[in-house]
Predict the structure.
Amino acid sequence: MKVLVPVKRVLDYNVKPRVKADGTGVDLANVKMSMNPFDEIAVEEAIRLKDKGVTEIVVVSIGEQKSQETLRTALAMGADRAILVVSETKVEPLGVAKILAKIVEEEKPDMVILGKQAIDDDNNQTGQMLAGLLNWGQGTFASKVEIADGSVNVTREVDGGAETDTLKLPAIITTDLRLNEPRYASLPNIMKAKSKPMAQKTPADFGVDVTPRLTTLKVVEPAKRSAGIKVADVDALVGKLKEMGVAK
Amino acid sequence: MKTLVWVEHDGQAVKDATLSAVTAASQLGEVHLLIAGQGVDGVAAEAAKIAGVGKVHVADDVAFAHALAENVAPLIVELMATHDAFVAPSTTHGKNIAPRVAALLDVMQISDILSVESEDTFTRPIYAGNAIATVQSSDAKKVITVRGTAFAKAATEGGSGEIEAVASTGDKGLSTFAGSEIAKNERPELTSAKIIVSGGRALASSEQFHATIDPLADKLGAGVGASRAAVDAGYAPNDYQVGQTGKIVAPEVYVAIGISGAIQHLAGMKDSKVIVAINKDEDAPIFQVADIGLVGDLFKIVPELTEKL
Ligand SMILES: Cc1cc2nc3c(=O)[nH]c(=O)nc-3n(C[C@@H](O)[C@H](O)[C@H](O)COP(=O)(O)OP(=O)(O)OC[C@H]3O[C@@H](n4cnc5c(N)ncnc54)[C@H](O)[C@@H]3O)c2cc1C
Ligand SMILES: Cc1cc2nc3c(=O)[nH]c(=O)nc-3n(C[C@H](O)[C@H](O)[C@H](O)COP(=O)(O)OP(=O)(O)OC[C@H]3O[C@@H](n4cnc5c(N)ncnc54)[C@H](O)[C@@H]3O)c2cc1C
């Protein structure tokens, strides 16, 4: 069984994003970039499924040349080979999904495991779009994945609790935070990953038009909250809450 | 613009998040609703009364009973032949369905909008709400999800929508619903609670979480939330999580107890009207956004507070 895992290079989740003064976006110059945390979970899940019938894990990234680093990280974790689709310009989830659909046609995986959202654009779209384009089932926001005969049971985090759906394979899965705890790559594995194969493509190779449909007119900082007051003790807090009408 | 709003319901009643989506849709033009489900006459009658709605399309079929995206999306795509925009609430079901619809229509979705600037221009949060982008769509049809806390809820009375049955597009045979565990919760739902009391990692166990947080919440008639750290450690159920990847809330009062204030947590609650923070570390980032802060040991403060209220 083959699994495809798309991974995205994003601003590291520990870095506080800064909006550029000219309002064109968030400043990504000289800041730490990492693999989208949900995609680490996706890679980890694919690796764990290796005991359960998965034989090959192919990781894909669509982005600038530097996304090679992100792919190497996935290879060091345990993926087998990588495909980089180079685009130095913005590719929206719809474009990403179209490129992934073409790669699926070529690679014929049984499952594609994606992150549920990328923590930069917070779109939460790509997996569902890919499922629509391929006419596959989609198990989004997964907290548990169990492969059965010709199908996969996916427990999903939904408002109010959890839901389990059975999907016919091939299928799309998107990962939620509690699916697993991703491993760190060991030094020997990081060294080994350097010689694992990485193919380079462009969106044009797949005949996909990635012209953006959305134009970002401006990016601003949200209204700032300012720190309020500190009260000395519980009585003062109760007093404040009464003043506000929260407590009687 | 003719707009189709997907109505989220539980088979019995329309969910609140739908009402915010209706408000957003009404800023685009004429509002039509879609109710897909099984045995949904009651829901349809209720939805028809929402202020300002025109047609109420009702698709009643077992294939729609659990809102599986694989079955619902093709139905929406058919209806979109006569609509210009599709709007869904940013709930887990809304987020599951809308992008599939967008891909089938070859449209780039605009996720989680905060405002409608014009028919094609919207604002939306990026980077966990640390930046707000204004985006303009060049697609002929729009597919939009709506952040519930950013729009007022449409009135549930006063409308007289015209109910119209639509033919089912059937079961696509890709997925089946196998079961669900929806927690029975007597407390107000987080996304509509006026007051929320949230606990963090500092609560240190499930027993202490409930013993400390619940009585205060009961006193205040509040909903209960949690940080991801508290949820991951098993102190609180998954759907308590507030934050970038949990619930986005904006109550009148948010009480953060033993929560440090990581940006991913702030992303979910910083639009609350009043933030109260209790933390033993006076430098905890939560105090940078709190209106009222109290530095000290929560295990002393919270019981005392509960008693004195
Ligand atoms: C050079 C460059 C410049 C950019 N500039 C901007 C900009 O100025 N403004 C802006 O808003 N956006 C910009 N982007 C982001 C833009 O590419 C898309 O918005 C983004 O790829 C998809 O949105 P998302 O990650 O929020 O999707 P989501 O739907 O949230 O992603 C979900 C999952 O899909 C997969 N996935 C998504 N994208 C990729 C990818 N590229 N490769 C592999 N897997 C992926 C991952 O598994 C991810 O977890 C830029 C991207 C690049 C490469
Ligand atoms: C991709 C991604 C998504 C995430 N999404 C979310 C999300 O949606 N929601 C979310 O909450 N987090 C999210 N996180 C996690 C986030 O980064 C933080 O790790 C988390 O919010 C920390 O939870 P906490 O504040 O409870 O714990 P901690 O950061 O450990 O804080 C505990 C606090 O309790 C205080 N304390 C300890 N003992 C006491 C005491 N006796 N009395 C008073 N105070 C005490 C400490 O001073 C400290 O400030 C996400 C992370 C990632 C990477």
Observations:
- Chain A touches chain B through 82 residues (CB under 8 Å).
- Chain A has a mean pLDDT of 95.
